[in-house]
Amino acid sequence: MIKKFDKKDEEAGSGSNPFQHLEKSAVLQEARIFNETPINPRRCLHILTKIIYLLNQGEHFGTTEATEAFFAMTRLFQSNDQTLRRMCYLTIKEMANISEDVIIVTSSLTKDMTGKEDVYRGPAIRALCRITDTTMLQAIERYMKQAIVDKVPSVSSSALVSSLHMVKMSYDVVKRWVNEAQEAASSDNIMVQVGMVLVWLFICPPSCFSFIYPCLYHVMFPMHLQYHALGLLYHLRKNDRLAVTKMLNKFTKSGLKSPFAYCMLIRIASKLLEETEGGHDSPLFDFIESCLRNKHEMVVYEAASAIVHMPNCTARELAPAVSVLQLFCSSPKAALRYAAVRTLNKVAMKHPSAVTACNLDLENLITDSNRSIATLAITTLLKTGSESSVDRLMKQISSFVSEISDEFKVVVVQAISALCQKYPRKHSVMMNFLSNMLRDDGGFEYKRAIVDCIISIIEENPESKETGLAHLCEFIEDCEHTVLATKILHLLGKEGPRTPSPSKYIRFIFNRVVLESEAVRAAAVSALAKFGAQNDDLLPSVLVLMQRCMMDSDDEVRDRATFYMNVLQQKQKALNAAYIFNGLSVSVPGLEKSLHQYTLEPSEKPFDMKTVPLATAPITEQKTEIAPVATSKLPEKPAPSRQDIYQEQLAGIPEFQSLGPLFKSSEPVQLTEAETEYVVRCIKHTFATHMVFQFDCTNTLNDQLLQRVLVQMEPSEAYEVVHHVPAPSLPYNQPGSSYTLVRLPDDDPTAVSCTFSCTMKYLVRDCDPNTGEPDDDGYDDEYVLEDLEVTVADHIQKVLKPNFGAAWEEVGDEFEKEETFALASVRTLEEAVNNIVSFLGMQPCERSDKVPENKNSHVLFLAGMNLPDIYFILKGSE
Amino acid sequence: FQAVEPSLYTVKAVLIMDNDGERLYAKYYDDTYPTVKEQKAFEKNIFNKTHRTDSEIALLEGLTVVYKSNIDLYFYVIGSSHENELMLMSVLNCLFDSLSQMLSTHVSLKNVEKRALLENMEGLFLAVDEIVDGGVILESDPQQVVHRVALRGDDVPLTEQTVTQVREYSHSSLSAVYLSISFSLSFG
């Protein structure tokens, strides 16, 4: 028996945990014995263990005490005890960020990493790279390059992984090690070693085998060396698509030993397939498919998952992947069953029919002891099963829904939501189930998923509206989540007045005014106002209730009540539409910024709402994203939209400061092929009288430095190019922006569309691809880009009108203009709607962009805003 | 769905807890849980959700958690929900098997249990350091890990050591032999 601990500790730790009552100060006190001569390895080791244990428990060490302990520890390098030395490396890693002057141990570590003891070398490299900063990196570069190509795989692996960690810190230095990494990844030197070991085996008596096993193992199965080399190589080259393709070709042909390396290769291949939008007949796809027959389950699963996640996969291409996943469903390993059913669940979202073959296996998993697997199996079946099995499955879920974690409850709710879209007739069963779930305990995410699901059912099925609203009314009677309560109140205000008996909702809403917090009370007041505006017979009672709200203790509630009271008393449709139904359509961060600006420079002029950039229409949520996503740990602050970011960027350029507020920024347009020397894309920014074209250019040649890059534009119409802002310098792989300012023709307001032919002009300086040093002189050159078009959509900003009818009425008949257009080239209604929406760049309202099936006429509501300030509402029917 | 950026960073955290849910070991490799307070809250949540069930995998707070319990210890490996579950599993198995080999040769208690682990904390620290480095899987073979950690029971006479120990002990001299042979081969 080995006594690892001193007597004293054993007595103190007579309980179960000898580390339980460790005092930081006592341990640091003990650390003084590090200075004693001779060093007692066993005691010192124990103290280092205690220090690391304390750090691990989250104990805070002050800089001074940490530095003191660290410096004492450096003395232990004098001892040759292996374990003690290894613990010193660990202490260095743990203290790298809390102690000062950690670089003091650099020379000790460099000595160990180049020394004879293989056991020291890997860990010494890893510790060294933790304490090395950009300035020190140059000094150890030579050693790192040697270590990467070292014969001992563990040393090489450590060097490769440490290099990867340091890429974040100094990409430029690590980039220079690419050749060494390449050498480590190639299997040539490994084969030589295998030969040698075989000779060694041959000349040895068999009894020695156990002794040489570690050496043999090292050489025969350097499992992870290729994985690490591949990881680093990809990271260094990922922006150079050609190099990545070459690397892939090489490895897919030569084959790999490590299953981890295969997984990495599959990921790189599928990423490349996605970027190049390569067809599925490409060799990359064949490689991924061939991995389905690999002998390692990990690789097979990775390949299947990669195929499943590919966009536009056909059912035939999916079939082999689905069938290996089906096999995994009956594996004895829970992790494998889980992985398989989770992936099948994803397949079922897009291709339910492809998964039908697995229904039997999935049925078996419903009773799996791992509830996560059971839940995933049921939700998958809900997607693939027939309408008749829905009731049975729902019953099965209700039997264990209380046992599963909130994450999976959300998955269940989302599956139900998808099911409602598929089988609208089942909505009453679902609604019942959802309302029961709504009454159960659960966190915010879970409740929100249910509420969202009910809302989407209401929107899809008009006949379920009243039951749904009734459930939600009941829910807000006892709802602790302000966000959900306000959301539901908003919905009630929007939908309630249009139901046959709006009066019954008033009670629920007014209860909120009496009982809830300020935010909910304010939302309730707004909802009440909408009832008053829409229903004349309810107006008198709403006014009475408003009167009461005007006595509220909260400012916001009182202000809203007073405001609505006054608007409602006017009894004018236009006022109601503008101030009650369709609220502000400006971007909130933009409004905040404009108001702040206004307060900084107060003027006689009142603040003009029109100078605030419009809110870009919210991106409609993808209904297909049913995978349990990471619970929102993101800050709840509204992120500034793309447009707000551009506004800020453009405002930083002096030439563009006089242009006024940014009206609209387009999506980026590619002006080059994806794999050319220079990659250029353009974003069109529209202002009141000007347009700014932002060209984002990337130089993909590592032997060139471009300077003074500008894009020359030749307009086809009366547009006038006013000014160029060149990008001063464009080094390899660092994107830069060049701007061109164009004045819109002011004499002819109808000349909105225009074609520009574009040429990029620049000064080239050749440079050394390794060091990036450019030559002293360069030459002018130019590069022809694709033509750029400005269309109607660039001049129209989307505006969301929640209540389209009211907005339409507000404009009035005199501005109505009716025209008929024949759309010759489109065949289906859906196609026509999509084309119109994208051509005009306007916002479809009231979900009118969804065309019901089997109809030959459809009314599309579009809202938009033109320059300068003409609201534009379009009601089209075909 | 967007393909996950290919990366070697696989493991977000490695945790070991006792049967009261107390942290015995915790190593977080990224800043998903930056403060000790958030980490402890996460550990509590994990432990509550997993300690009663015997299933080896779960999805918690949007992260994939693979776990294993033995007597009075709970081992967890945590990765992103997009990560290959089997990779995480191989880390967990490697950690557990390495520990069980190390403990069975170095500590009188043969099982992987809390007491034995606490008596061999440095072994645990070194083993995890060999398995995962900064979130990258370094090694997944327990033999290799045990060999590299190379803990020597310094008081044990040679005759009472197991073959593994002798093997480890002699490794450094052996690799010198091996190297000299490779030199002689390559030079002539």
Automatic annotation (TrEMBL), chain A:
<feature type="domain" description="Clathrin/coatomer adaptor adaptin-like N-terminal">
    <location>
        <begin position="24"/>
        <end position="571"/>
    </location>
</feature>
<keyword id="KW-0653">Protein transport</keyword>
<feature type="domain" description="Coatomer subunit gamma C-terminal">
    <location>
        <begin position="793"/>
        <end position="866"/>
    </location>
</feature>
<protein>
    <recommendedName>
        <fullName>Coatomer subunit gamma</fullName>
    </recommendedName>
</protein>
<dbReference type="GO" id="GO:0006888">
    <property type="term" value="P:endoplasmic reticulum to Golgi vesicle-mediated transport"/>
</dbReference>
<keyword id="KW-0333">Golgi apparatus</keyword>
<dbReference type="InterPro" id="IPR013040">
    <property type="entry name" value="Coatomer_gsu_app_Ig-like_dom"/>
</dbReference>
<keyword id="KW-0968">Cytoplasmic vesicle</keyword>
<dbReference type="InterPro" id="IPR012295">
    <property type="entry name" value="TBP_dom_sf"/>
</dbReference>
<keyword id="KW-0963">Cytoplasm</keyword>
<keyword id="KW-0472">Membrane</keyword>
<keyword id="KW-0813">Transport</keyword>
<dbReference type="GO" id="GO:0006891">
    <property type="term" value="P:intra-Golgi vesicle-mediated transport"/>
</dbReference>
<keyword id="KW-0812">Transmembrane</keyword>
<dbReference type="InterPro" id="IPR017106">
    <property type="entry name" value="Coatomer_gsu"/>
</dbReference>
<dbReference type="InterPro" id="IPR002553">
    <property type="entry name" value="Clathrin/coatomer_adapt-like_N"/>
</dbReference>
<keyword id="KW-0677">Repeat</keyword>
<feature type="domain" description="Coatomer gamma subunit appendage Ig-like subdomain">
    <location>
        <begin position="645"/>
        <end position="791"/>
    </location>
</feature>
<dbReference type="Pfam" id="PF08752">
    <property type="entry name" value="COP-gamma_platf"/>
</dbReference>
<dbReference type="GO" id="GO:0005793">
    <property type="term" value="C:endoplasmic reticulum-Golgi intermediate compartment"/>
</dbReference>
<dbReference type="Pfam" id="PF01602">
    <property type="entry name" value="Adaptin_N"/>
</dbReference>
<dbReference type="InterPro" id="IPR032154">
    <property type="entry name" value="Coatomer_g_Cpla"/>
</dbReference>
From TrEMBL, chain B:
<dbReference type="Pfam" id="PF01217">
    <property type="entry name" value="Clat_adaptor_s"/>
</dbReference>
<comment type="similarity">
    <text>Belongs to the adaptor complexes small subunit family.</text>
</comment>
<comment type="subunit">
    <text>Oligomeric complex that consists of at least the alpha, beta, beta', gamma, delta, epsilon and zeta subunits.</text>
</comment>
<dbReference type="GO" id="GO:0000139">
    <property type="term" value="C:Golgi membrane"/>
</dbReference>
<dbReference type="GO" id="GO:0006890">
    <property type="term" value="P:retrograde vesicle-mediated transport, Golgi to endoplasmic reticulum"/>
</dbReference>
<dbReference type="InterPro" id="IPR000804">
    <property type="entry name" value="Clathrin_sm-chain_CS"/>
</dbReference>
<keyword id="KW-0472">Membrane</keyword>
<keyword id="KW-0963">Cytoplasm</keyword>
<dbReference type="InterPro" id="IPR011012">
    <property type="entry name" value="Longin-like_dom_sf"/>
</dbReference>
<keyword id="KW-0931">ER-Golgi transport</keyword>
<protein>
    <recommendedName>
        <fullName>Coatomer subunit zeta</fullName>
    </recommendedName>
</protein>
<dbReference type="InterPro" id="IPR022775">
    <property type="entry name" value="AP_mu_sigma_su"/>
</dbReference>
<dbReference type="GO" id="GO:0006886">
    <property type="term" value="P:intracellular protein transport"/>
</dbReference>
<keyword id="KW-0968">Cytoplasmic vesicle</keyword>
<dbReference type="InterPro" id="IPR039652">
    <property type="entry name" value="Coatomer_zeta"/>
</dbReference>
<feature type="domain" description="AP complex mu/sigma subunit">
    <location>
        <begin position="10"/>
        <end position="153"/>
    </location>
</feature>
<dbReference type="GO" id="GO:0030126">
    <property type="term" value="C:COPI vesicle coat"/>
</dbReference>
<keyword id="KW-0653">Protein transport</keyword>
<keyword id="KW-0813">Transport</keyword>
<dbReference type="GO" id="GO:0006891">
    <property type="term" value="P:intra-Golgi vesicle-mediated transport"/>
</dbReference>
<comment type="function">
    <text>The coatomer is a cytosolic protein complex that binds to dilysine motifs and reversibly associates with Golgi non-clathrin-coated vesicles, which further mediate biosynthetic protein transport from the ER, via the Golgi up to the trans Golgi network. Coatomer complex is required for budding from Golgi membranes, and is essential for the retrograde Golgi-to-ER transport of dilysine-tagged proteins. The zeta subunit may be involved in regulating the coat assembly and, hence, the rate of biosynthetic protein transport due to its association-dissociation properties with the coatomer complex.</text>
</comment>
<keyword id="KW-0333">Golgi apparatus</keyword>
